[in-house]
Amino acid sequence: MTHHSHSPTTNRRAFLGAGMGFGALALGAMLHRDGVAGDDSAKWSPPDGQPHFAPKAKNVIWLFMVGGVSHLESFDPKGELTKYAGKTFSETPYPDTLHNPFVKDNVRVVVPNDANGKIWPKLYPLQVGYGRRGQSGIEMSDWWPHLGRCADELAVVRSMWTTDNNHGAQLQFHSGRHRLDGFFPTIGAWVHYGLGSVNDNLPQFVVMGRPIADCCGGMEGHGANYLGPQHSGVRLAVGGGNPLPFATPGKDVYREEQQAEFELLNKLNRTAAIEYPHDEAMRARIKSYELAFHMQTAVPEVVRFSDESAATQKLYGLDQSTTRAFGQQMLTARRLVERGVRFVQVFHGSNGGAGAWDAHSNLKKGHAKLCQQVDQPIAALITDLKRRGLLDETLVVWGTEFGRTPGSQNSNGRDHHPYGFSIWLAGGGIKGGVVHGATDPLGFHAVENRHYITDLHATVLHQLGLDPRRLEVPGRKRLDIDFGTPIREIIA
């Protein structure tokens, strides 16, 4: 077996990048915390890690379905679509739904055209049944039977809107900005920036699932941009293999050898600390290296599902091929927040392009399959958090970049639809069993209590005790809409 050795005079940065296998983003949260890798993007005083006011939640699990889930076949079913299927908008009692009365919000007026410039030839009927769920009676489609049993824990918001009518909306959902505006910090990065660490053996902003594709924002979908890479999400692989592929030494490096390397680096840093006894950055840097080493033990323990009972594994669907992959991620999410991780972001459906949920055709077949993959695991997450007493302090958020059109596309699909769509929240001080906002009878426009994406961000930050305006970075101009307004109607 080949061994690597390093001279005490080795450049520290190269030492970290090569011999210890810490290359790439995965350990950015540790190695860049105090400028370790020479990052100079954070030239301001960061927050003190304390909430601005009493928080109602400690952690966030952020679930994002990539491609655009149909609100009409999920959490905002419209029976009128089936009633008037095959008719044009003008042939229904609701021709005014074609016109957007909210130009003041910079959402352009749109008439739904097909490729030939004609109004959609017909409305497309619902592709699945629906009914009222729970004691609250929230209407949900039949593709979500397990989640339906958790309806009384959910606050469904049916009046979201965004401005990107293509899949750049995936990035917009996380950063609040249209891609044409450039890249900005994401919601997970703001949480990390505002509150910092709870458990220094684990990253505080974890990302699971395949991230959004380069076409739609790529790694910026969980990035921190001008806040600095120390606040970016750390990718965690679940379901076999090495959960931190970028954060472990090479296969030819013994753990004992790596520990010796850490000890040498600490000795060098502590020697420098004697010369600069008041250097806070130096002390933080030493701690970062130590914590990075600890993560290599702590993270694999998180994904060791053998610690869980057979009943719990079955609850999450680990015994079924259809639900196993996402079920493992949901179980890992619970284990992470249980250990103090602040923000867990989980992607589902990313496929290297627009996303599996992008239903321009074959909506019924595609959505039925995808819902089956995630329905039971998500319901298990809520159920498990509640029975462990964790739901009150864990905010679960479900979202997608936009909805789907009421009219048909390619005979059996729906097009992109940013003018009114649905999300839901649960736990973390959020009211359960409520519906907020509404779209028109055909599901075209949000017409009651409309909310731009950053209202969701503001709600998450509020539940964590953070005021987004007090997190503003000097020299970084932000529009009023960037801050958003908490959706107080759904806050308990």
Feature tags:
492 residues, disordered N terminus, 2 domains, 15 strands, 29% helix, 9-stranded mixed sheet, two-stranded antiparallel ribbon, Alkaline Phosphatase, subunit A, alpha/beta
What does this entry look like structurally?
Strand 13 (about 440) and strand 14 form a beta hairpin. The protein folds into two domains: about 10-25 and about 250-300, no CATH class; about 40-240 and about 310-490, Alkaline Phosphatase, subunit A. The termini are far apart. It is globular. It contains 13 helices and 15 strands. Helix 7 packs antiparallel against helix 8 and helix 10 packs parallel to helix 11. The protein has about 500 residues and is an alpha/beta fold.
Look up the CATH topology of the largest domain.
Alkaline Phosphatase, subunit A
Spatial gap, N to C terminus: 60 Å
The number of distinct β-strands equals 15
Count of alpha/pi helices = 13
Rg measurement, Å: 24 Å
- Oligomerization status of the protein chains: single chain
CATH classification, class level of the largest domain: Alpha Beta
